[in-house]
Amino acid sequence: TQLLEQSPQFLSIQEGENLTVYCNSSSVFSSLQWYRQEPGEGPVLLVTVVTGGEVKKLKRLTFQFGDARKDSSLHITAAQTGDTGLYLCAGRGSSNTGKLIFGQGTTLQVKP
Amino acid sequence: DADVTQTPRNRITKTGKRIMLECSQTKGHDRMYWYRQDPGLGLRLIYYSFDVKDINKGEISDGYSVSRQAQAKFSLSLESAIPNQTALYFCATSDTLGTGTYNEQFFGPGTRLTVL
Prior knowledge:
The complex is a heterodimer.
Chain A: E1 5-7, E2 10-14, E3 19-24, E4 31-37, E5 44-49, E6 55-58, E7 61-65, E8 71-76, E9 85-92, E10 100-102, E11 106-111
Parallel strand pairs in A: 2-11
Antiparallel strand pairs in A: 1-3, 3-8, 4-5, 4-9, 6-7, 7-8, 9-10, 9-11
Chain B: E1 4-7, E2 10-13, E3 19-25, E4 31-38, E5 42-51, E6 54-57, E7 65-70, E8 73-78, E9 87-94, E10 106-107, E11 111-115
Parallel strand pairs in B: 2-11
Antiparallel strand pairs in B: 1-3, 3-8, 4-5, 4-9, 5-6, 7-8, 9-10, 9-11
């Protein structure tokens, strides 16, 4: 069974601080996605990483896929209150089923 | 208008009652999914369907059943609800995987179900 472990599960920081969220597994994934979920809404895709070692940037968010495609990280620079939410990583296995395996999620609270 | 809609948005029911959660989509996607979300557990897959004639169990299908009435509609039923089925339920859709696509899933707004 493929599992994704996210850490930390909860993070509370002041506006302007930097943070990193980790997503780790012992399994290899063909691609990994990061979603963001706000209260009362469903998750929304932020990024997909596919190649080992790949780095993608989305404004102040930097996503990295591990060289072995078993782990990923999300780094936020100079966090803003609007970054508050639940961040979920999700991996797709090598089969063509399209199923995603989700991590437990990281709840981020950015205080003004 | 929302591409993926879920009804109801909130529901309180009693143990033993049958309940149906409905999902409709206007994205034209073939693939539809039902997840439940519990604090600290992320999203867990209940059932998924790749087309109207294809239904598959996910990792936590016990106590649930589904029906794919049309390409655009996928409903989840709890035949006899129990308190540990209290959770947030999400429907999602995705396009058929093809070259260059990586299965982005589009989620509905969720249904908060409480079983007393």
